[in-house]
Amino acid sequence: MVSCENIFVDEKNWLASEYYIHSINPDGTENEEIVQLDFYPGKIEVSSDGQKLLAYGSDQYLFINLINNTINPLNTNNSNHYPKPTFSHDSSKLVFTKQNKLMLHDIYINETDSLICTGVDGYAVFSPNDEYIIFTTSDVDGSNYLKSLKRIKTDGSGLITLFSYINDSYPRTTICSPIFSSTGKLYFIANGTLHNINLDGSNHQDFNIEMKSKSIDISPNGDLIIGIDSYDYLLLISFDGMDFYPLYSGENAKFISNQRLVYSKSNVDLRVGEWDGSESNKLIRGRFPTYCDLMNKIYYLHVKEIYE
């Protein structure tokens, strides 16, 4: 007879979490710690030259120079949050919005911030040639819904509206997640569906494909778009919207080639999968992957739980 009287479960008491940014090759080799953070970031961005990282959360932003290993906070001035700061394609600048202002942060000139225009409260990205900034805005003071997509030159001139979604039947419409393909086409999400438009505002198209208002990514050749559908599955879409189908349950997907992508599963594991859904393999435990093509590196958040 086996007695359970003296069997005890050794339960560990959780003390804290530590947050680190790591880099890893797409094949799982050379997993390296880069820096420890003192906050939990919601996203990690890497510059196209592979020399700079940006980690940001609700109200904290760290700029990390990988060449000289310096870490500097981005000046928030007690702001609320910066919606998704974005590197320029030449890696010399950051664009972001704060306190209803569109700001340009010059990385090489004393890390200074320049005001581009006011009345901006949404997402912002650079055009492929870095000449223009595309941003979303509510156009209404105090509104929580981003109803317009606009374009402005980096010197603050030439402001035009590319697209507006004003519909009394859908007062909560939000335009978000603007991104350019390698062919120069601008894609974005409006009222929960995928759209695209030319940089001059012409040839607008609503694909009528439902997507959640989260970030999207485009393959290097511009042929494929990846996002998240209403069932939290990664949704693969052809550039013209003619073909689309769900792949895997996941989030934060980034293309690492025209045929492969990295994504997070249940916000715990990083996985690398094929574009057609034929294969998906666990890479490592981690969150919020981003990818630098020049360095062929995946950067991600590693969370280390501390127990007593």
Structural features, described:
The chain is an all-beta fold. The chain has one domain (14-307): TolB, C-terminal domain (Neuraminidase, 6 Propeller), CATH 2.120.10.30. It is built from no helices and 28 strands. The chain has strands at 14-24, 32-37, 43-46, 52-56, 61-65, 70-73, 86-87, 93-98, 101-106, 112-118, 124-126, 132-137, 148-153, 160-164, 175-180, 186-190, 193-197, 205-210, 217-218, 224-228, 233-238, 244-249, 251-255, 260-265, 269-274, 280-285, 287-292, 297-307. Strands 2-1-28-27 form a four-stranded antiparallel beta sheet, with no helix packed on it. A four-stranded antiparallel beta sheet has the order 3-4-5-6, with no helix packed on it. A four-stranded antiparallel beta sheet has the order 7-8-9-10, with no helix packed on it. A hairpin with a 4-residue loop joins β20 (224-228) and β21. The chain is globular and about 55 Å long.
In short:
The protein is an all-beta fold.
List keywords for this structure.
308 residues; mainly beta; Neuraminidase; four-stranded antiparallel sheet
CATH topology: Neuraminidase
Distance between the termini: 35 Å
Number of domains: 1
Overall shape: globular
The low-confidence runs, each spanning 5 or more residues with pLDDT under 50, are: none
Question: What would CATH call the class?
Answer: Mainly Beta
- Alpha-beta content class: mainly beta
Gyration radius from CA atoms, angstroms: 21 Å
Q: How much strand?
A: over 45%
The assigned CATH architecture is 6 Propeller
Number of strands: 28
**CATH homolog superfamily:** TolB, C-terminal domain
Provide the helix percentage.
Answer: under 10%
* Average residue pLDDT: 86
Order of helices and strands: EEEEEEEEEEEEEEEEEEEEEEEEEEEE
Helix tally equals 0
Main sheet: strands, sense, barrel: 4 strands, antiparallel
